[in-house]
Amino acid sequence: MRVLITGSNGLLGQKIVKYCLANNIDFVATSKGDNRNNSCSESNYKELDITLQNQINDLFSTVQPTHVIHTAAITNVDYCELNPEECSLVNVTATEYLMSATFNCKAHFQLLSTDFVFDGEKGNYSEGDKVNPLSKYAVSKVKGEQLLMGSPETNWSIVRTIIVYGKADNLSRTNLIVWAKETLRSNGEMKIIDDQFRSPTFADDLAKGCMSILEKEKTGVYHLSGPETMSIYTIVERIAKFYNYSMENVVKMSSATLNQPAKRPPRTGFSLTKAINNLEYSPRKLEDTLDEC
Ligand SMILES: NC(=O)c1ccc[n+]([C@@H]2O[C@H](COP(=O)([O-])OP(=O)(O)OC[C@H]3O[C@@H](n4cnc5c(N)ncnc54)[C@H](OP(=O)(O)O)[C@@H]3O)[C@@H](O)[C@H]2O)c1
Fold first, then answer.
1. What is residue 246's predicted lDDT score, i.e. its pLDDT?
2. Is the pTM of this model over 0.85?
3. For ligand 1, is residue 112 a contact (CB within 6 Å)?
4. pLDDT band at residue 165, thresholds of 50, 70 and 90?
5. Distance from the CA of 72 to the center of ligand 1, in angstroms?
6. Residue 16 in contact with residue 7, Cβ under 8 Å?
């Protein structure tokens, strides 16, 4: 097994690298620009801008991966809403380039996707539920999924996940849980919405789930998230309670007042039955992971 990871400077990318190192799995980590993951040696790293098809094809013919985990994406939902062409280039066109290079190598292609493919009216979504994306980011992820679902190739998997959190080196953006924990500790002010419900997902657990799909030779769509669905406000409240931090500077607000460029689904959350049964997926509760953040 030789795993090629895209987006290895990102949160999930770094955790996949960590998993491969811990389990002695051969891997090549790739990201745009220099390696910013302190755990990844330069000999395991190759610079790769996924929007450059020639660069992809040259690298794949040298590396000859058996598996590709495609985590790289523009993940800022509001940025995608305001920059739809760039969003489409990185999240859709580049996925098509990578997919085709992977299948030329007869390798497995794993695409990371999101709970935002759903409209959030139902919640507790199963893999077969109907998608209905509300934002440009969500549409780009659905289009990426459709490239695989409509392909004659079958050696692929799609992993949908929800609010990924954890600590990693030199990330280009922080994540909700780490930011909330740091802001609560310094008693800083926070405005937090209480009308959107999510299942926060610890990045290390997600990385393990992604790798289980490869190791157990599974294909198809998998929902991998944390085990509990709660409002964003409750997430912050639970962090405060766990560390005995004050909530005095945390203001509850509604999504409408926040007025963000991209529309978000009100309630997501996943049914994890398939992942538990097929992958022995066992994600940890928020409180069991906070000390590692
Ligand atoms: N984070 C979440 O809450 C969440 C929720 C649902 C689904 N997902 C999906 O899960 C996947 C991993 O998320 P994550 O949290 O690890 O995201 P992340 O930390 O934002 O990592 C994404 C990585 O992609 C890299 N990238 C962007 N454009 C690139 C390009 N043209 N070529 C090569 N690399 C490029 C970024 O590089 P820079 O660091 O240099 O910008 C970044 O390191 C994504 O596909 C995302 O859509 C994430």
1. 95
2. yes
3. yes
4. very high
5. 4
6. no
